Amino acid sequence: MPESLPEFLVAQRLRARSLGDHIVTFATLLADRGYATSTTKELLRLVADLGHWLGHRQRRAEDLDEKGVGQFLQHRRRRGRRPRSNGGALRVLLGLLRDAGVVRPVAPAAVSPIDRIVQAFDKYLIQERGVGAAGRANYVPVVRRLLSLRFGAEPVKLRTLCPEDVTQFVVRELRKLSPARAKLTMTALRSFLRWLHQRGDTPADLGGVVPRVADWRLATLPKSITSDQVESLLEACDRRNAVGQRDYAILLMLARLGLRAGEIVAMDLEDLDWDTGELVVRGKGGRRDRLPLPRDVGAAVAAYLRLGRPTCSTRRVFIRMRAPLRGFANSIAICTIVERALTRAELDPPRKGAHLLRHALACTMLRGGASLAEIGEILRHRSPDTTAIYAKVDVTALRALAPAWPCSAGDA
Hints:
- It is a single chain.
- The chain is built from 18 helices and 3 strands.
- By secondary structure, it is mainly α.
- The protein has a 3-stranded antiparallel sheet, with no helix packed on it.
- A hairpin with a 4-residue loop joins strand 1 (272-273) and strand 2.
- Helix 6 (113-127) packs antiparallel against helix 7 and helix 11 crosses helix 15 (355-367).
- The N and C termini lie far apart (85 Å).
């Protein structure tokens, strides 16, 4: 804890009244999460104000809950104080008080029939299909929308589901979705309806009612950039500061190893084996692979860990640079890092997500003479069909397969 805090903390502890015994724990948590001293002081004043407000109303810390926090925040707003961080900080405080047994735990919300079905399907996806969190995030909302549209507040009688219900839902969904998203939605719907039939919840397999979406995976070329553009992208990182060191290490992993954005997010310090020069990658469906760590990638990650990564309790390799110091919430953060790097390098490809560098690696390997099987092994594709799209990048080889254009004898 910063040296300037103890004296300040004593004053706030006295003002906090019934919360005074817990304000030190809160201050320690803020320090562990990397908050600046000025921000920590602001949040400690907030907690002290909350304790003073409780005491003024003859209430104790034990009486605090979400409703009380909301009333306190309204009180502050009426006095012209409305920082956005207040609500989040006090939710953290409530969590600490509940962990300490001071505040009553939140009563479990009533589980609706639709919730029970959705939870059972989600459990099936995990245990039987090995679907990861990202995949389930695409499947589960589709199921909830179908059941809500069909039953609403009425009793959920799955045996009454009929083809007309499915068709009505499909028409409603397809009106607002792109072909790629529509294909994913129909796959989720088909999987759910077949699961219902397997459980005996529906007399017929309604999965056959769900149409196939015309979105041919091999109809387009993979969106990529050249190897020279990849190097320009990497050179655009300012490695003189911590953010640049982090972003450079992330971009290098994407470009040299072809990792997915989610694999970067999930990477822990234990996944780096410096003795053997290998990296454990947590892939789709709980799959784990060991990859060799190239020298330049290892050097970039080591530089970031030694010089750029703030001290904090999280075991994630790549973390936010602003408090609270923790790992990225999802893959969007990695895609944002790629997009910003493209802007700095003055590159404007059609696609700007993290997968751009994965495609670039595959295309560079193909042009260098690598086989599709070798590319699939590096990218850790489960099926050769997934790698097949890169065959179209080798235009020279494809030109030899193209038949001659028919022409008349006079045109020859």
